[in-house]
Amino acid sequence: MIEINNLTKKYGNFTALNNLNLNISTGTVFGFVGPNGAGKSTTMSILATLLSPTTGSAKVGGYEVTKHPKEVRKLIGYMPDFFGVYDHFKTVEYLDFYGASYGIPRNERLQVIPQLLELVNLSDKKDFYVDSLSRGMKQRLCLARSLIHDPELLILDEPASGLDPRARIEMREILKELKTMGKTIMISSHILPELAEMVDEIGVIENGVLVSQGKVSDIQNQLSSNRILNIRILENKERAMEQLRDEKFVAKVEADEKGLQVHFSGEDKDQFELLSKLMADGHKIVSYSEAEADLEDVFLAITKGA
Amino acid sequence: MMMLYLKQKLINPVLEKEFRLRLRTIRSPLALMFYLFAIGLIAFGFMYMMFNDYYYGGMNPERSREMFYFLSGVQLFLILFMTPGLTAGVISSEREKQTLNILLTTQQSSTTIILSKLFSSISFMILIVFATLPIYSIVFLFGGISPSQVVFIFLFYIFLMFSLGAFGILFSTIFKKTMIAIITTYGTTIFLYGFTGLAAIFFESINRGVGSNLVGFLLSLNPLAALISMYDSNFTEQMFRSQKDFQIWEIFVFVYFIIMIICILLSIRFLRPALKKKKLKQS
């Protein structure tokens, strides 16, 4: 659905995107992760035909965004990171305006709009003025707006930014629903860890360069060479810490009220040997487990925190 | 074919949205009310002065014609004052409200968006100007002016609004901030209209009889001079000091029509990034 080849975007001397290569297949839910200013919004703006790249190419559904912008716009539903609404429109009128702007006939709009309002749980707000809606409701309305022409691809730039936990959960549920509808979704979000179960692939971008791309599980496996071991010891914690620091694959040992956190770079076999050694040395081990890396850990591990 | 194209371009969701939203704000009826109040006050003030003038003994066709000229001049300045304010924010305010990006990802073309924005803001201005017709009808009570002259003047106003509106919409497209767009539009209007008038007066006073074509050409860019040339067919001859095939207002319309088209085309070009024209290197 999306093919990006050697995409570069420069603003004067500043390079926002540097030879970005990215492929997203149809039906995939793609999480786009990266620190602020990494180039996520720039990439999404280029795909939405709002920015022209300096060099390289970007295709959506086989259409080059710079050559066939009108066809690309038919295929995408775009939700920017910051957006406004027309204050003097009612919710229904707001959706009707965008439906008409996409060339949807009036009778079709009359059928689609109630369905979309139901999808985003705003049916009871259909006659409310848009400026009277809460931020979470406006976000959901904007999502409904991006779906009005039944696009194949949804480009959602930080759709849950600034939302309270409840509104985030509501947004996540809607996105899950969209996934079941078979939409291809490209999403950048601060709540990506919360979306872990619905994201098929992630791409990590930093300083305009795609640092990593692949299935969530594959990237988590990459990280397993830098696993964290949680060890709870009944007594003599200090002696155990001293001993662990001298071990071959141990980079760092930290302690808190829960126990010891051991940064371990060895493989499964080495991890087993470490446990055996600790037991043989008489340490009273209550629990010994490997911390599960979530997407947030993946992100922090891959990016350098620029 | 042409009519169908224009229909598609002019009757569209963006235009409908603009009409609806503009008339839902309190500012629109207030602007209409204050405009009518101002022009009514001036008209009735003029009539009051006439009726209290014992020399002329009230209104007559000659006085009625003077009142028409006076009202037309006042209306011209009100249009010059209001049109930049109504048009110079139409694109930049959408950008500031962060609604423009969403609109640009719809199927609406840049031409449709720009023309709809221009037509909707000018339509409101036309509504205001047409609302003053009852005041103009006073003129007909006393004679001195034919209805065709009124129609002619109103057509000139509409043209003036479009030409000023084209400046406004261009600056609104180019500049990100509405305030800068408004200041630039007013600045351009004052420079084009004020400078041409003042320069004509200056050259007329220092160089009587010599190079008078310059004065004529400068005045041909000035809306007030164009308006006067519509009332007085000898005005062009007096200003050019020679027989001319064209009246000042005709030159005015010709020049500003070209400028208007250029401004609209540039606005359409700059609304979206140059996606097609730019040849991208495949690195």
TrEMBL record, chain A:
One Gene Ontology molecular-function label: ATP binding
Highest taxon of the lineage: Bacteria
Pfam family, one: ABC_tran
Keyword field contains Transport: yes
UniProt entry keywords in alphabetical sequence: ATP-binding, Nucleotide-binding, Transport
Ranges for domain ABC transporter: 2-232
Keyword presence, Nucleotide-binding: yes
Transmembrane segments: none
Similarity annotation: Belongs to the ABC transporter superfamily.
Protein name: ABC transporter ATP-binding protein
Organism: Chengkuizengella axinellae
